[in-house]
Predict the 3D structure of the following.
Amino acid sequence: KSTARRGDSSTTQDQASSRRTPILELRAVSCAYETGRPAIVDISLCALEGEILCLLGPSGCGKTTTLRAIAGFEPVINGEIVLGDRLVSSPTAFVPTEERHIGMVFQEYALFPHLRVMENITFGLNHLTREAQRAEADRLLQLTGLTGLDRRYPHELSGGQQQRVALARALAQKPVLLLLDEPFSNLDPDMRGKMREDLRRLLRETHMTAVLVTHDHEEAFAMADRIAVLNQGRVEQVDTPEAIYHTPSSPFVADFVGQADFIPGTVQNGTVLTELGTFPNEGDYPVGMQVVVLIRPDDVHIMPSKEGLGRIVSRQFRGSENYYRIQLPSGRPVHSTESSTSIYPIGTTVQVRVLASHTVLFEKRLVQPPPTGTNEP
Ligand code: ADP
Ligand code: MG
């Protein structure tokens, strides 16, 4: 029954994702390197069985450190890491990497250069007979799209192929969890797209649970079941890709996962008054409060008009769409994506309409630096 409690062992596990078993759990984990302040602080996350969890954030926000802590390369100074039902890291407990049964694929492919593809894949399979090793490698070669390349050396492969070998080698160990740290960042864009699709399909087919690190929100959107956005060593939001994009929990998240314009407004009588019109007072901010409305370019529509309040200041042609920058009467910019064939000259006066299915508001003080800030242009 749908009302069954979470954790009720009599219910089947495949009914709802909320009842799937957590494979990995981080509880308020902090790590610090010898130098300076902690690299990650109070990180709490979980990855459910068969789930692809993405850690997304700018360079230096602590993604790799989090992966290293999960893999057992970094001790934690606070909190707990649980794998399956085993506590593997805490300030007083530490299960070594080789007992964690975690597969890893990193940015640099880290293959054995003097071993052929086949031997790279079967490297850790000495406990199997030669026939069983061969069969397992053939299965993985096929799964990763490498059939026919088994006798090549790493230097005879493209970057994408090398990364597939690294993946096959990680999967050969039958890990309970796969960690991938920016695995596609050394590949050219075409190959990256293909690898994303193939990896996602492969993870699904093998029901593998994975934590994928990336600084690229498009990659996270394309790959993840859920995304954890990190900022300066802390988790800002954990949610589905759609929720991260449409209902970001902070201006940082809003800005990091796409173009975001923050239009100031004042709360009045249940609405928010801005130079782009009124918006619903989502979140019931008090009357008189200074807020900002999050505006995405896909919600902004422009129409050339003599009476329009906006003025086109730039256009970027992107093939499938045009990306406009509009100056509002206050001098503030707002961006708009229009169809590929909607081409208007710079300087055109336009009417600006916002058609959003929902409104996201933040307190204004969270978006602008305080008055003492020195960075404001
Ligand atoms: P990301 O993978 O998100 O780019 P990292 O986890 O590599 O971020 O780094 C997080 C923070 O820890 C950064 O401030 C970085 O400078 C610092 N850091 C990373 N590795 C080390 C190290 N080996 N020694 C000292 N500081 C480090
Ligand atoms: Mg990193």
In short: The CA atoms of residues 117 and 165 lie 7 Å apart. The first strand starts at residue 22 and ends at 31. The pocket of adenosine-5'-diphosphate (ligand 1) is lined by residues 33, 35, 39, 57, 59-65 (CB under 6 Å).
